[in-house]
Amino acid sequence: MLDSFSEDFSYFTLRKKAMGESAATSVFGMSCTRQLDAKELIERPTDVTRSTVQKSVVIVAQGPHLFPGWREKLSLVTRAWFMQRDFRDTQILKVDNFEGCHFGPYTPLQQLDMLADHDTKSYFVGSTNSLLLQQKDRYSDVIINLDDTTVSITSSFLRSSLSLTHADRRWIDFLHAKVSATWDPSDPSRPTNHGYLGSEEFIRLQFEEYLLALLSATKYHLYLYSVPHSKRDLSAFTDIEGDPSLDFGEAWLEAWKVTSNYKLWNKYTDSHLFDIVDPRHPTAGALSIEDVNRRLAAQIEDLHLEERFATSKETINKHLASGKKQVSTAFNNLWADVETFRSAQRAKA
Question: For the CA atoms of 42, 48, 54, 60, what is the dihedral angle to 10 degrees?
């Protein structure tokens, strides 16, 4: 039995008919199945008559030896498709960006040769094997060591590309200050005030705002360099001077531009994204912490987040004794309300 937080994998074979000189053979399939409450769909199709919708994404391959590496990728794609809450949109199923990439939360010693293989473009893996640390120059660009809570950038090229700009430092200092001020060592899952500031939802929203601003500023950057000055229409952006993407790091942007990820993103996204999302770093220019605090206060007021959290605290406390699932559901329902409100705000814009 599936719930909205789980997934199920199935494996099967199909008979491939003989064609020409090729004899009949078998192909191998793997499917990832998830389900969603029908009420959460953005638009409910007429053929959805039950309270839940169950869908699967399927991979068919010549041999089962490919499945260990593809299982995680299939899970990511299926999860992303469900997060859209609109099954008519299958663009997310384009897996061009995953070809030649490996995602392994736990990678045994036997798979290390695959990481160094010429056909492996990139990977994101977890391991308890110290060999990765001993040969970090061979196997890594970045290492996150959970034992000593350090992040090491082993690639000199990435080290320069990932250098924080002044705006980046102001932004991360602001985020760190808010989380530190509400941190509860006895219960890291919730801030001391049990409110929005410092919560996981607060952190997620700040990163979402940062990433959207980064993407919007990149489109603004492309517009500046592709449209002649005499033909530009930037009348709505009189308060933006120069190229706002520089606040995110010129070296990083240039490094991103040569990746397959960037090419796919640029191909399938609106060239005028900056008309929808403000193309400005969250802590750009000479903004002080007080300026950022005022913007945050306005954000909280617009979304009525403290009111929502106050109501949710009662619900969450009521269900604490009932187990983790009920508490998770309460948080998810709250965040779904916030997302719905924010989507409506974006639509108005």
Answer: -100
Query: Three-class SS of residue 327?
Result: helix
Residues 24 and 18: beta-carbon distance below 8 Å: yes
Q: Tell me what pLDDT residue 316 has.
A: 43
Confidence of residue 330 (pLDDT cuts 50, 70, 90): very low
Q: How many CB atoms lie under 10 A from the CB of residue 134? A: 10
Query: How far apart, in Å, are the Cα atoms of 12 and each of 2, 55, 67, 93, 291?
Result: 19, 17, 12, 21, 58
pTM for the whole structure: 0.59
What's the Cα-to-Cα distance from 20 to each of 16, 17, 23, 142, 249, rounded to whole Å?
A: 12, 10, 8, 49, 56
Q: Which residues lie closer than 8 Å to 175 by C-beta, 6 or more apart? A: 203, 206
* Backbone phi, psi, residue 161, to 5°: -70, -30
What is the per-residue burial (b if ≥16 Cβ within 10 Å, else e) of 54-81?
eeebebeeeeeeebebbbbbbbebbeeb
278-328 per-position pLDDT tens digit? 999 999 876 566 666 666 666 666 555 555 555 544 554 554 444 444 444
Q: Tokens for 293?
A: 């605090």
The CA distance from 140 to 134, in Å, is: 11
Which value, to the nearest 10 degrees, does the dihedral of the CA atoms of residues 180, 182, 184, 190 take?
-120
Q: What is the per-residue pLDDT across 159-210, written as a single tens digit (0 to 9) for each?
A: 889 989 989 998 998 899 888 888 888 887 778 877 778 888 888 889 999 9
Q: Which residues of 264-286 are buried (b: 16+ CB within 10 A; e: fewer)?
A: eeeeeeeeebbbebbbbbbbbee
Amino acid at 274: F
Q: Say whether 14 sits in a helix, a strand or coil.
A: strand
Residues 17-29: b if buried by 16+ CB within 10 A, e if exposed: eeeeeeeeeeebe
Query: For 198, left (φ over 0), alpha (ψ -120 to 50), or beta?
Result: left
Count the residues in the chain. Answer: 349
Mean pLDDT of 140-163: 89
